[in-house]
Amino acid sequence: MWMRRWACPLALLVPLVTAVAAATAAAQAPLRVASPDGRNEVTVQVRDGRLYYSLQRDGRAILLPSLLGFAFRGAAPLRDSLQVTDTARQTVDETWTQPWGEVARVRDHHNELRVSVAETAPAPLGRRFTVVFRVFNDGVGFRYEVPAQPGLGEFEISDELTEFALADDARAWWIPSNRPRLDRSEMLYSSSPVSVIDSVQTPLTMETRDGRTFIVIHEANLVDYARMFLAGARMQDRTLRAALAPYADGTKVHGRTPFVTPWRTIQLADRATDLAPSVLGLNLNPPSVLQNTSWIKPMKYVGIWWGMHIGTMTWSSGPKHGATTANAKRYIDFAAANGLGGVLVEGWNVGWDGDWIQNRNAFSFTQAYADYDLAEVARYARAKGVKLIVHNETSGGIENYERQMDSAFALYHSLGLDAIKSGYVTDLTSAGDSHYGQVMARHYRRVIETAAKYGIMLDVHEPMHDTGERRTYPNMMSREGARGQEYNAWSSEGGNPPEHETILFFTRLLDGPMDFTPGIFDILIARGTGRPRRPDEPRVRTTLAKQLALYVVLYSPLQMAADLPENYEHQPAFQFIRDVAVDWDTTRVLAGKIGDYVIVARRERNGPSWFLGAITDEEARSFDIPLSFLTPGRAYVAEIYADGPGANWLTNPLPVTISRRRVTAGSRLHVALAPGGGQAVRIRPAR
Ligand code: NOJ
Ligand code: CA
After folding, report:
1. Residue 393 Cβ < 6 Å to ligand 1
2. Which helix (H) or strand (E) holds 299?
3. By three-state DSSP, how is residue 329 classified?
4. Ligand 1: which atom is nearest the Cα of residue 305?
5. Torsional class of 354: left (φ above 0), alpha (ψ -120 to 50), beta (otherwise)
6. Cα-to-centroid distance, 423 and ligand 1 (Å)
7. Residue whose CA is at the smallest distance from ligand 1 atom 7
8. 117: closest CA among 24, 12, 205, 55?
9. Which of 5, 239, 477, 609 is in Cβ range 3.0-4.6 Å of 165 for a Cys bridge?
10. What is the pLDDT of residue 551?
11. 193: number of CA atoms within 13 Å, CB side?
12. Sheet with 253-256, edge to edge strand ranges
């Protein structure tokens, strides 16, 4: 009996001990790995038995020695008496193609260093793990890999001990993570030195005080783990610590070895404009597991949606019910007539009556209200060549959703429906776990996999933050996960301030596409509600031209024309929404300052046309933009949608001047933006 119990550990112990002995002499020497261009360098070192990494760029410290390790419930922390037992290195340089995206081709070029460590005490069974670093020209990713081992089988992580010890009290643009209610990401951003931050969501964007480096901390490939927030030691130091979203009992992650964590990522750039499009997280996700992705198609869509937010329609049944068969057909006709690919219908299914946020278990995902004939609407949409986007609000009732998911998705599939917008308006799971904890990470992954099985594309609201899932599952297309247009309809703060989208571009949008739902033309929300709103009431706090520019600036493969169809009728500016592409070959950020302005140019996928979007905060600005990104020697026509005379988000938001001009790669474009304004340009080959 004793033989059996000890046979396995002893056999393991022998090679381990030899490896430790061999490594001891070298263990004192720091291990280093640099990016292919040599500018970013990670150093790994054991000091007093603890494992630290640090990060330099051009020889300047970005992260000072920062701790690695875990604390467990019911077991000693995996942090002390560590010794390096093994290292391995490799270089990867490959380029892969996205089925859709902000750019078609992505280069994954990095140097990898694997550092394996083991506890030298308690003897004889030192627990062990490996930290894998991948260093790219645009940043660093690292993760823990914990192999199966006798001393570490099942575990409960009470804390991940990872630190990010910032060398500089960088300026951060951030949203907190410790709000007691509505534990979501739908907040306005603050800007402050990082040292005053208590708790923060990622991606966390920072600029060093000397303005030389932009740093974004985030994570990639979150599969079966809790979402990472960052906790600061307010006013004490500049060290941010991983703070995982908890279960109700305070534990963070339940698992068993072998086990890998998500990647912790630190994106680096010299200029804010070099941060986007961000591909670091995509490169750290596994390639697509879907054999056939031809059914996954970016599109623009309209929806029975804004009416509910401005109060002219209801999700629930009754005289103002939005999701009627007749209404849905009207939207489908509108989409078909204007070349928009999809129609979203919210409030079609039983469960909205009463307090739908509390009644999370009341939702049926198959049974329609009596005035909505799902099969007939699906048939009508198919006949018109329009995709019907099915809405699945769960109110966070994930058990209720998972119970119905297979049969609901099978029904949608049988009706030819291949897109879902889901929603998770909630604070906590029914068991009281964090909305962002391991339970929800598992749920979201299950939904993505089930949707893939039934050939369904996803647009998730109140989602887990994006950690690059779309590379592995390209049906995971867009999400909300930030404060979108809906706040302009009802927020007690009066809507989103004019600077909001100029911050979103450099923060939330760095983790992935956002279903912001741009394109409100009835800026003062007068129509249907009877009277224009005052500036202190909820209203859209942009000019109309800026609404157009958002189609280019805020990337989403599912891009909504969010206003009521009647608000687009007889509006010449609507032509831009009809024309703008939703899938891109190339993206160039031409100018930008976080919180002030952004100018982006993108070339459509499989076509020669470029689109340019420029937005500003509450200040008027003008720019002179060289069009050198155009193909030399080719003649183009620029169709320009600019803020009109006297335009101002506050006093005069509607004027748009539409003009046409012949341009070439040698031309310059004058971009004048009104306060809270924007400009949208289509640059197509001259005929
Ligand atoms: C919040 C979503 O963001 C919004 O788009 C949706 O209309 C409501 N929830 C209802 O599901
Ligand atoms: Ca929302």
Report:
1. yes
2. strand 299-304
3. helix
4. 7
5. left
6. 6
7. 305
8. 24
9. 239
10. 99
11. 15
12. 75-78, 70-72, 154-160, 253-256
Two tokens at 10?
Answer: 């002893």
DSSP secondary structure letter of residue 550: H
What gap in Å lies between CA 97 and CA 107, rounded to an integer?
Answer: 9
Sign of the alpha-carbon torsion through 141, 443, 415, 568: negative
Q: Which residue has the tokens 């939904």?
A: 447
- Beta pairing partners, 425: none
Q: Are 591 and 597 in contact (CB under 8 A)?
A: yes
- Residue 235, pLDDT score: 56
Residues 6+ apart with CB under 8 A from 224: 255, 438, 441, 442, 445
Which amino acid, one-letter code, is at 545?
A
Torsion of CA 390, 526, 182, 360, to 10 degrees: -40
Q: Answer whether 461 contacts ligand 1 (Cβ < 6 A).
A: yes
- Low pLDDT (below 50) residues in the chain: 1-23, 25-27
Residue 382 tokens, joined: 């198919």
Cα torsion 660, 665, 667, 668: sign: positive
Contact between 422 and 405 under an 8 Å Cβ cutoff? The reply is no
223, 468 contact by CB (below 8 A): no
Structure letter (DSSP) for residue 250:
S
DSSP structure string for 563-593? S-GGGTTT-TTHHHHHH--SSEEEEEEEEEE
The Cα–Cα gap between 41 and 646 comes to 51
Ligand 1 within 6 A of CB of 352: no
A 10 A CB-CB count for 76 gives 13
Q: Which helix (H) or strand (E) holds 195?
A: none
- The DSSP symbol for 286 reads P
CB-CB neighbours of 517 under 10 Å: 27
Residue closest by Cα to atom 8 of ligand 1: 423
Assign residue 658 a region (left: φ > 0; alpha: ψ between -120 and 50; beta: otherwise): beta
> What are the start-end ranges of the H helices in 222-345?
280-283, 306-310, 325-337
The first and second tokens of residue 352, run together, are 């909205």
Ligand nearest to the CA of 182: 2
Amino acid letter, 139: G
Q: How far is CA 492 from CA 181, 487, 495, 516, 558, in A?
A: 16, 9, 7, 19, 28
**Per-residue confidence (pLDDT) for residue 125, from 0 to 100:** 65
Dist. CA 229–CA 235, nearest whole Å? 18
Q: Which two tokens stand for residue 580?
A: 């703008």
Q: Does residue 486 carry a catalytic annotation?
A: yes
For CA atoms 220, 226, 232, 238, the dihedral sign is negative
User: Closest ligand 1 atom, CA of 186?
Assistant: 3
Tell me which of 163, 219, 486, 501 is the catalytic residue: 486
